[in-house]
## 1
Amino acid sequence: MDAMMMGAMSKDMMSMPDMADMDMAMMQECMDACSACEQACTICSMQMMSCAPACMNCADMCNTMMRAMMRMQGMTKPVMMSMLDACIAMCQMCMDACMEHADHSEICKMCAQSCKACMDACSKMRDAMMATA
Amino acid sequence: MDAMMMGAMSKDMMSMPDMADMDMAMMQECMDACSACEQACTICSMQMMSCAPACMNCADMCNTMMRAMMRMQGMTKPVMMSMLDACIAMCQMCMDACMEHADHSEICKMCAQSCKACMDACSKMRDAMMATA
Amino acid sequence: MDAMMMGAMSKDMMSMPDMADMDMAMMQECMDACSACEQACTICSMQMMSCAPACMNCADMCNTMMRAMMRMQGMTKPVMMSMLDACIAMCQMCMDACMEHADHSEICKMCAQSCKACMDACSKMRDAMMATA
Amino acid sequence: MDAMMMGAMSKDMMSMPDMADMDMAMMQECMDACSACEQACTICSMQMMSCAPACMNCADMCNTMMRAMMRMQGMTKPVMMSMLDACIAMCQMCMDACMEHADHSEICKMCAQSCKACMDACSKMRDAMMATA
């Protein structure tokens, strides 16, 4: 995301009682990883390979996850952690499905990498929230 | 959802090894509850009350949940249960936020009811999946 | 959509200067047709036939269209008509793509019917808005 | 979007009869503008100012637009142009709504800029498609 927009959004978020201890750089990284994963999955699903249904589910979940991070006013830490768990599980499953074609399809390989990056970013967020919950 | 479409979809789903024991009537009920909750939350968010951010998050999560149930080819039971958990947590949170205005706003009251119905339908699905996992 | 929710939403909408002359029954019919079309297209895309990319585009457009009708506070008639045009064009294209398989696939046949119904409901809305623009 | 992913996607797209003459750099710019606009609008809507309903509509339309460009297999040029028209109209309306608060809100100012950038990128795409239609 745009750095200036992130800055303005962070200022708003810092004033929320539950969110003052949130690491904003980590959160931005996570939103960017969700956005990149939605895009990679959407493109990958167009190949109509066996991973396509997982890719479509993963694209929707990543978009929902990204938006939820932009709307922390409508979140609590426990709900956030539950959504991160779902997003991590979805990304893992999609990555596994894409890895089966990684040798034959450059797009699947890149999609699997995006899923891995999103999974890692969400796990990092989850661990940080857990530590301060 | 349309009964004939549900019938045609069920036939496809029954041929998936993991899904043969799925209760299709229960699943249809859950998809319909997700769809109704997305709609109620979208309308409720327009009131610009304090529940609006939760309503927006809940609308997106419910849509993603509904679509995932229509794309079980791209799902496993554990991922599905993780998403159901997230949807249940989100609906609960949104219901609580809307209940604070239920005395003043007819829309909030109805939105809270939709959230409750969606939460219950997802919990039922989750319990059934757990039992056969 | 739930009739009581529609009633509550209509009351809010009637107070908008631009929307007082909107036919709410027609609008509800259109939102329901968009919702049904999103669902049919999502299911149809799982067949991985040649219509799948059109179905995915159509599902997203119909969801966006439905939500926009629930958020008329963030709309003007000209923007609404432009979005209805896009939705009509998308539904027409998806219907054509599905009709090519209607003899072989019950799901494609039903999806084409949902696209047709959505196209017709959007056209009706568009004509009504044009008449009062 | 990631440059390597765009490269891989372009190769697929070039093989479509209708899309061989598409300017891929222009398209990537447009997808990125849609993605940035969805994010800005989602954040801006959290301010619960009068532009919020327009921002929510714009976020959904921009996401649908971006995805449609990633799924050109399910598009024709006329449908694409119709969707670009709708997206341009929506961005224009949202920009106008946000500009009313640009003096008071840094977020509204940035959101209006994102809407403008998306509007311009979509217009460029539309003109290019028109020229080759």
## 2
Amino acid sequence: MNAEIIAVGSELLLGQITNTNAKFISSQLSELGINVFYHTVVGDNSKRLDEAITVAESRADCLIFSGGLGPTKDDLTKETIARHLGVDLAFDEVALTYIKEFFARRGRAMTDNNRKQALVLEGSDVLANHHGMAPGMILTKNGRTYILLPGPPKELEPMFQFEAKPKLVALLNTDGVISSHVMRFYGIGEAELEDRVQDILDAQTNPTVAPLASDGEVTLRVTAKAETESEAQRLIAAKVAEIQAIVGDYQYGMDDDSLASKTVEMLLDNELTISAAESLTAGLFQSELAEIPGVGGSLIGGVVTYTEGSKVKQLGISQELLDTHGIVSSECASAMASAVRTKFNTNIGIGLTGAAGPTAHDHQPVGTVWIGIAINDEEPITYLLHLSGMRNTNRLRAVKFTCHYLMQLLVERGFSKR
Amino acid sequence: MNAEIIAVGSELLLGQITNTNAKFISSQLSELGINVFYHTVVGDNSKRLDEAITVAESRADCLIFSGGLGPTKDDLTKETIARHLGVDLAFDEVALTYIKEFFARRGRAMTDNNRKQALVLEGSDVLANHHGMAPGMILTKNGRTYILLPGPPKELEPMFQFEAKPKLVALLNTDGVISSHVMRFYGIGEAELEDRVQDILDAQTNPTVAPLASDGEVTLRVTAKAETESEAQRLIAAKVAEIQAIVGDYQYGMDDDSLASKTVEMLLDNELTISAAESLTAGLFQSELAEIPGVGGSLIGGVVTYTEGSKVKQLGISQELLDTHGIVSSECASAMASAVRTKFNTNIGIGLTGAAGPTAHDHQPVGTVWIGIAINDEEPITYLLHLSGMRNTNRLRAVKFTCHYLMQLLVERGFSKR
């Protein structure tokens, strides 16, 4: 089966929003082994949408639409498809009741145009929308499958995963399975990583190995085709081990792991508490850790010391140290890490100072960052970065490098990593 | 002129990355008054790319390609277009020299496949790449314009703005201009905003007014067509004033403003210093302010007090208050705001506490957030939110509402807002 994803919405063509739905659906289809050869975006225009459907039918046997199912007169996806296929629209009673209850629960009056959302293609399977009002649909006609999903990602994503995907899998009636896992690396460039695993990349057949770099991270996607899921997983595990033997030192995790989630996992597993003193990142390191549920078992807190005075007053760093070595210095990062660790009585203290940009700070060029890491009573270790991005890319990179170095250091000290 | 944007890259179809280039180019074209009727994404496959070009030529007179200009054998955009148009590829000496110097500067050996990046379509205008190696191209043939841009956004965006756009404007040879501005609102839902400006939306001709909601914010894009730029700006200003008369209370800014940038601007303009004590947001409020260059004139710093103990120990909040009212309470947010203001000796102190999710916290349901704002010696004001998103959406919304309420409060106190 090969699919085309058609996003409907003039706001996409005006550049007001990004087509994240296509990315989401594509990654889901990729895991099912369904090929996606094209994405199309078309505006809220019935004629042009109709033409896009004709083009897509000439090159795909599954058309997946996102958007245009809402109550306004701009929303015309199902009306256009109905006309295109010569299928009627009819009210779905379940959806209509759901919409009425949606308004009743909120104590708001239901306007007439909201009824329109309960219209569905006759003969289609209705996909329930548990996060909004417009239901989705799946219809097979003339040997082709049409799936209609709502535009808002918070409605589309659960509807695809829990309503559409099982029906799609049933349609596939496939003999084998395709599975894939993503290996995640940090602290190594894409070119260097590729160079080091070049023999594996050149020899790949099944599993395939595909590198990708973004946001300073590099990933390798390992995809296997097999008779059974367990056989596919076995093939992947063997290839992953082969790659780890070469560049395992740089791998921080798999699949949906992030540097922050792996760091939090490692801290919790080893019952280590952490605090941070942040200057250029101004709370971003702590905030990134706090994205992970359960972090409260490790993150006690910390300070943001954005000004020179606050470093002296809040952390007790000596004015002499700052005068001698500067704010953006190994000595300052080290003193910040030590001071915050003592102040918050944690196992680990982090100190972050640097020149994020757009202008030099403390006579240091933009992109200069010092990271200090204090573990228990050890002398803090410091790391120097020379980053080349914009202000906020540099701030985020500084946070990612902090996670990377902290995990490396903990592994060196004998702490366990999953 | 109407344009189609064709992104080339299998990683897009696999759902590994999002097509942010299409959004960027679309918003740029929208400002030039160039219609975009379709976006297409196609993989690194010469045959399918060729077919996509044929389809696009049937419906657009400007084709803009992103991606596939790199050194690897997967990169085949210009080769495919050359074959499609019957045009030769030739080495561009300027680009070749630039690539050689690029490697020399980094002290790395230039591999042979990198030469391929200097190949350009014969007869095209070469677009310099100041942030990478592969040059772009613009070529007019058979009455159609073909623009080739590299895939990485940090290369594509400046190349489009500074190299391609001026050439595109010259081609347009337009009689009039189209300009637009975006009005930004917070603290009001999309439906309510639309309802209140319904008469304006119904009567719109020139300027047009288009609403859009995302990330808890609502915007109105006001677009005018006129003989001259100044006439377009005059039309927009009049319409903006008309809208402001109705819903101006909720408007926080225009165009590229963010809640954080406007908050920082207001703090700096009024010479107000700020500090924050953060629990559920764990540094995110301070970090968002720190995204804005120059914030060091106002943001002194603050504390993250993620645990109950750290609220007592670092901020001196009484255990009795926490036992009586709980951590997620008006009293706690108020005490946090006061304490951090005193500790950092700032004009304003912010306190943020709540249950971000995924589970209830301190017996309060997920999404309950208390914001405390202390201004000078006044009794702190507190605000209660009931948010319905996921953990990190709730954390970000809490930060946005803090900016929104803080600006409202400062306006009420007579401080100036641009």
